[in-house]
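Anyone up for a design puzzle?
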């Protein structure tokens, strides 16, 4: 007899706030309680806890001390996982392996962040991540603070090498906003037309303010278990997981911004026994609009159609060939690193998407990236029969 399938069996989310509020610990405790209740279990049923947090050394950064403060005891698995935006899928993979090897039975994966604090914005919080040594130190000394300027360089390079244009960035942003209109959890829910995009202030050419994710104070937690009684009404089977870390060098004379992520998706699909044509939706990590284009291209999700043509034809929107970032993603929904796409995949496959629900969505690709498209993680989920 084969072992029971490992599944995501519980989801908990806090309110996503664009105003200063609770600490990461407080938010994580709230999301954890909601996930445990959603799975129909209690704290004592959880014997594994995996914690993710935003990068950077911050006094309130969530760590393994969360387990004691959240009321857990006698855990068999307790770890802090950190691979930037690929962390969420790495946590699910770690939970899966622990369950399959008998190291744990029911595992909580939680991520919380609170970059918005009184007196300063999220931008200043993230600008100080990465340290002051090595390449990041050189960037900081040159005035390149945070991810926006570096992703702007990446974006300009990608538009040049693929003969794309800012109109493609615009279509990604307006499509994401259209999805967000149907998502009560999205923090930006006002209609957006093309002119509104071009009126958005330029932050670092070619990235406008609307090309950048919207950080929030919030948390998401999920329960992973192979017990069919846990979360019986909303289980999503983990069909495949793949990861790839190309290790970028970025030396002169060598193209090292792009490429390498396809292997993660290939491996996840091979494990699942599926092909790209079997995917009903894609939820991709999108800290900037250009990343959606890059991942659709690198992951070969648009078939024989060039990615720009695919996006402009509505391929990622409602009724498209591959509805993508159906909650507004991180551009209009909310930015909680890799938990944003995972949470939306769970909502969609449970059929709980309301106005934004993709009809008959059964399978999903969840993609996570870290750094400057340096780390790739892919997860294939399928609604339990």
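Challenge accepted. My sequence:
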């Amino acid at each position: 007899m084969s072992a029971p399938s490992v599944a995501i069996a519980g989801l908990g989310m806090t309110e996503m706030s664009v105003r200063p509020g609770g600490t990461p610990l407080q938010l994580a405790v709230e999301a954890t309680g909601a996930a445990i209740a959603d799975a129909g279990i209690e704290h004592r049923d959880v014997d594994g806890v995996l914690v993710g947090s935003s990068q950077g050394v911050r006094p309130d950064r969530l760590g393994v001390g969360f387990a004691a403060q959240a009321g857990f005891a006698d855990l068999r698995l307790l770890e802090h996982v950190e691979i930037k935006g690929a962390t969420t899928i790495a946590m699910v993979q770690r939970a899966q392996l622990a369950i399959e090897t008998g190291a744990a039975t029911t595992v909580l994966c939680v991520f919380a962040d609170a970059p918005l604090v009184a007196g300063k914005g999220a931008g200043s919080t993230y600008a100080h991540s990465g340290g002051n040594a090595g390449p990041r130190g050189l960037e900081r000394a040159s005035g390149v603070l945070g991810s926006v300027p570096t992703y702007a360089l990446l974006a300009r390079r990608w538009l040049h090498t693929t003969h794309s244009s800012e109109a493609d960035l615009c279509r990604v942003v307006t499509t994401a906003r259209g999805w967000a209109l149907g998502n009560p959890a999205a923090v930006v829910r006002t209609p957006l037309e093309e002119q509104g995009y071009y009126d958005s202030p330029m932050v670092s050419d070619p990235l406008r303010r609307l090309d950048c994710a919207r950080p929030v104070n919030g948390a998401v937690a999920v329960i992973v278990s192979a017990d069919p009684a846990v979360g019986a009404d909303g289980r999503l089977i983990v069909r495949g997981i793949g990861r790839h870390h190309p290790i970028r060098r970025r030396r002169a004379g060598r193209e090292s911004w792009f490429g390498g992520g396809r292997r993660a998706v290939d491996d996840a699909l091979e494990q699942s026994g599926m092909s790209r044509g079997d995917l009903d939706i894609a939820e991709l990590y999108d800290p900037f609009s250009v990343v959606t284009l890059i991942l659709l291209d690198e992951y070969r999700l648009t078939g024989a159609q060039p990615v720009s043509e695919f996006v402009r034809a509505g391929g990622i929107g409602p009724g498209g060939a591959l509805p993508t970032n159906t909650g507004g993603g991180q551009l209009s929904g909310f930015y909680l690193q890799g938990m944003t796409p995972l949470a939306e995949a769970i909502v969609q496959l449970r059929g709980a998407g309301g106005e934004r629900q993709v009809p008959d969505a059964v399978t999903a690709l969840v993609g996570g990236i870290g750094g400057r498209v340096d780390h790739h993680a892919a997860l294939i989920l399928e609604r339990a029969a």
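A detail worth pointing out: The CA atoms of residues 67 and 214 lie 28 Å apart.
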